[in-house]
Amino acid sequence: MNLLLNFFRKKVTKVYTIIFALIIFIIIMSNVLLDFLIDEKNKIFSDNSFVFVYTDNDIIDNLKFEKGILKIDDCVFADIESELIKNGNEVILDSSGNIISKTEENQSNDISLIDMKISGYEKSIVVEDSNNSYQLGDNEVVFGIIPEIYELKEENIDKIKDKELILNANNIKYKFILKTVVPSKFPIIIVSHNSFLNILYKSYNHLYRLTVNSYDNAYNITKNLAKRNNVIKSSIETSYNEKDSDKADKIDSFLITFNIIEKIILIFSLILLYIIISNEQKDYNKDFLILKRLGFSKRKLKLTFILILIIQFLLSMFFSFSVFYTIYIIINKALSINLNLLTYRYIIEILLMLLLLIIYFGLFKNREYYSH
């Protein structure tokens, strides 16, 4: 114990400990900022995307085991039958949901059947008004169309409001009155809870709308479902507005740069730690030689040096986390930004660096000092 205390009383040991703490703090902050950007990107995806799953039978119990699913909603496919809503034509959108072309037939700005379908699906999707947001009667529906189309056709919406239409689901026809048309991230038909259950119970296939917390998890879900024989189709559907699209693009660009910077920081930190510990070992060499002459064994000297490194890193981590936690509280109160306090990635990085250096210096590099 006295041997350790003597080392930590040295000014140079305190300086090295502070430098260790600074290196660990930089690693922590770079990883926390990286996690924050990834969380922001995932939030944008989750708010603007769904995974649709169309199956022969009920797989909701299986879906509950898929990673990253925040919410599962039942949906139903249906065809719209109404003289007031024409077949229309295809409107082509770019990746951000902006209209880049349309045929002459759509110049009338009437709501068309294509406006009510998600690209790649032949039928419209019916969901329930789960929060009773539209206060629908059991004979009423609301159409949701993407905002860009809504702006183009808003002036003609009154033509079809309060008019009768038919939803054909599973070859069963249901009469409704169109209450209104609203802007929506995806083309959707909204009905009351009772009406939805009535349609759902008579459906022989199952359609699920999944809200997922990240693109990676959404991709893995569709990949896993593709292996199942009873899954007819699964797809990731995304609809970003211009603001979210720009934000997501900027985050993607910054993540590419930041990932490179983080790797450079790790490499630089490892090199710097190597240099510092090498210098530290040289500084302690005289003490080790004296202790060896006093009868201390090589094994005890090695263990002492390893213990010094471990204690230095533990103290450094304590100081680093204390400073980080203080900054975390300040940022949270001032900017209302939630940063992750702990993530496995940077803790593993720090511990791996420590382990590699301890193995190298404790077992191999310092042989020359203990062999005299």
What does this structure look like?
- This protein has 372 residues and is of the alpha+beta class.
- Helix content is 52%, strand content 20%.
- It contains ten helices and eleven strands.
- The protein has helices spanning 2-9, 11-48, 60-63, 147-153, 193-201, 215-225, 242-293, 298-335, 344-365, 367-370, and strands at 49-55, 69-81, 91-93, 99-102, 124-128, 140-145, 164-169, 172-183, 188-191, 206-212, 231-238.
- Helix 7 runs parallel beside helix 9 (344-365) and helix 8 (298-335) packs antiparallel against helix 9.
- The two termini are 24 Å apart.
Q: Which blocks of ≥5 consecutive residues have pLDDT under 50?
A: 89-97, 103-107
Mean pLDDT: 81
Structural class: alpha+beta
Instruction: Estimate the global geometry from the Cα principal axes.
Output: elongated
Counted up, domains total: 2
Summary?
By secondary structure, this protein is of the alpha+beta class. The protein contains 10 helices and 11 strands.
Attribute tags:
2 domains; alpha+beta; two-stranded antiparallel sheet; elongated; 11 strands; 20% strand; 10 helices; 52% helix; 372 residues
